[in-house]
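Dear all,

This email documents one entry for the complex benchmark we are building for the journal club exercise. For each entry we list the sequence lines for every component of the assembly. Then comes the predicted three-dimensional structure of the complex as a token string, followed by one or two observations. Please use this as the template for your own entries, and keep the labels exactly as they appear.
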Amino acid sequence: MANKMHVKLTLNGQQVEGLAEPRTLLIHFLRENLNVTGPHIGCETSHCGACTVDMNGKSVKSCTVFVAQANGAEVTTVEGLVNPDGSLGVIQEMFREHHGLQCGFCTPGMITRAHRLLQENPRPTEEEVRFGMAGNLCRCTGYQNIVKAILASADMLNAQKEAAE
Amino acid sequence: MIPAGFDYHRPADLASALSILQTHGDEARVIAGGHSLIPMMKLRMAEIAHLVDLQDITDLKGITVGDAEVVIGAMTTQAELIGHDGLAARLPLLREAALQIADPQVRNMGTVGGNVANGDPGNDMPGLMQCLDASYEVVGPDGARMIPAREFYEAAYFTARGDDEILTRIVIPVPAAGTGYAYVKQKRKIGDYATAAAAVLVGKGGASVAMTNLADTPVWSEEASAALAAGDIEGAVAAMLDAIDPQEDMKGPVAFKKHVAAVILRRAIAQAQARAA
């Protein structure tokens, strides 16, 4: 029991691997084994969403996934949402522009969830944004600007897409 | 919040999963989405020596929508259930209820099979499945058997499924055309379990009423269903209040829970009647 296993992930487009006990939670593996500290540990009880990452194209709370379950998965964290030149991605930029953060603790989870929400629904209404972001808590209660930032991100991404077509 | 250690198994098919359960007996447990089990393991309320992950067993996935019945594979996530338009057209009550479970991230991992099999009185699907008169297929060393949802729940976390059996599919009879439906849930905040929730079907000469998180099992009431079928709403509410057995906890005292149960049930009945053709 409790032997370490060989874990492989595709993390932000890169192949990574490490040794971990199966009981290791994905959030701990990311932060402690791989030094990827974007996803935060908030409540550690799958309520707050600060640990949200993208796993195989779906938003999940990485505090409630064993690394053994994630073995072989494609994982994206907030670090993977920057532009190829390292500058802020659209959603990150819109959070900055619309002040979609106060203390910033929930922000990586918010942005990672918003990224997937806008893939699933590229033109959400304000109500759909609020419903889609319901798994992410901001203890500063800065929801108004978070929602604004996500709606602005949707407009920006749609404009970019149309310009490219 | 670190669970005790375990050996991890990820079998590729059902036969292998069953054989691991056979080998390790009650030291082994299956994990589906893990969003009930992992929190219990973190709190060390569940210690499991052998964890059997069902994610690679493709036979347990998928939704089949037929004219007479709907079949949902146990490993279907709540998000997959919500996203299935054919299912929503045939049985809209399922999507309505699933959208009220937890939050988007949890619905991406949490499965329908896990929700019904776990036996947690707070879970929404068990009461819903009792309302719909669904049956669960469980497969064990002696083969498959069907268990009606109304006979599955024995006490909190105790069900009719044996330790060496795996719940594989949920079979739901499609209600008659024109049947009104509603799932109404009172919760303190997103992600919380119900203070009270009601599943109601009402149609020509028939009705079915079940409630969630008001006893140590879901409560389907034959008396409440018969009263509602006869058009007696107050009789249905009275019969249900008689059938539930809420306990005082951080959601409130018993009298409050009974009050909320009646309010929620009346709302669900009104909504279902308004939708009945």
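Observations: The longest helix of chain A spans residues 143-164. Chain A touches chain B through 30 residues (CB under 8 Å).
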